[in-house]
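Lecture notes, unit on protein representations.

Consider one protein chain, 396 amino acids long.
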Amino acid sequence: MKKNLLFVIDSLDVAGAEKSLVTLLSLLDFSEYSVDLMLFGHGGKLEQLVPKEVHILPPLNYIKFSTLSIKEAISYSIKKFDFKWIQSRGRYSIGIRMKKYSHPQKARIFWQSVSHVIESNPKHYDIAISYAQGVPTFYVADKIAADKKFAWVNVTYRIDEKEQKFQKRFYDQYNGIVAVSDSTKEIFIETFPQYANKINVIYDINNPQLISQMADMGEGFNDDYDGIRILTIGRLNHQKGYDITLAACRKLKEMGVKFRWYVLGKGPLQEEIEQYIKEYKLTEHLILLGVKSNPYPYIKHSDIYVQTSRFEGFGLALAEARMLNVPVVTTRFDAVFNQMVDGKNGLVVDMNGVAVCDGIMKIIKDKALRESIVNYLQLEKKGNIEELEKFYELIG
C-alpha cells in the first residue's frame, strides 16, 4: 500500500528551496508514494516542472479571498454576512505596515492574524513535510493530521527571543527537523538547543543530468554581446546582498572593464535597484532579466557566476553553476564552505563590493587561474542524488 505524503511550501517561484523541492519530487518512487503538494501562492514558474504524479491541492479558501481586491473582499463579506476573513486580512495588513519586519516576524504576524480562519486539511497523511520555515511550518503543525511530521530549515536561522518563543510551540509538534547544510544545523541549534537530538542534515538535492539537459533547452542570452558575461541569480532582497552587487558593478565600470552583469530574480528591492542603475548610469552594465523558469542556459553561457549573499542555508545556485563548470566568485556567507574550495572551484571573498570586484578581476585577468578553476570543476563530483536515500531513511 502506498504511503501518503504531503509537502507544503509557500510557492513554486524560482528560488533555491523551490528548485530543491521540484528536484526531490522528480526523483521520488511513485510506485511507493502518493504525493500531495500544497502551496500558499499558485502560479509560480516552477509549477510546470512538477511531475504529473504529484497532486497539487487547490488553493485554500482564505488564500483565494486574500487575492481579491479590497472592494471585492468587502462585497464578498457582505454577501456572505461573514466578516471574519476581512477582519483577519485587515489585522495582518495593518500589522505589517507599522514598521519594517523581517521574514520571521511577518510570518508570525500573518499566522496570529489569520490562522483561526484558515481551514485544516481533512485528509490524514502518513508523512507531512513543511519544506520551508515560517507559514508552512505553522500550517503543518496546526492544520494537518499526520502520523509523522518533518520541518525543513533552509535558511540561516538567527531570530530574536520573541520569535523563538512563538516558533517553539510549532517545532515541538514535529518528529524531526531537517537542515540543508551543516552550518544551517549548527546555527539552528544555537537558536533552539532543545532540538539538537531531532535535527538531521539532508542537502538540497541537485540532479546534474537534469540540469545539463535543461541547460541545452529553452532561451538564453539573446543579445550579440561579445564581452564578459557575469550572472547572479536570487531574489531581489536584503539577504542576497544586492547593495554589494551594485557597488562591485559600479567599480568595474569605473575601471573600464568591458562586461555585462545579468541578474535573474524579482523581489521587494527591484525599484530601489532600478533607481540606483539609473543614478549611476549602469543601464548598459547591470541588466535585470526577471524570473526564468529555466535559468540553466544563462548559467552555461556566463563567464563568471557571482553570489553576493549575506546568508544562505546552502546556496543552490552556486552548486548549479559548479555543475555547469562556470567559475564562481562568492561572498563568505555561513554555509559557503559546505561546497566551495577557495582558489580551486572558485573564489570566496569578503562581503563587500571592493572584494567582489577584485575577485571578478582576478578571474578575468589571470588566465591560468581561470583555466585551473574550470579544470577542477570538470573533474569535481557532480550533484548529490545520494541525498535521496537520506530522505527515504527519514520518512521510513
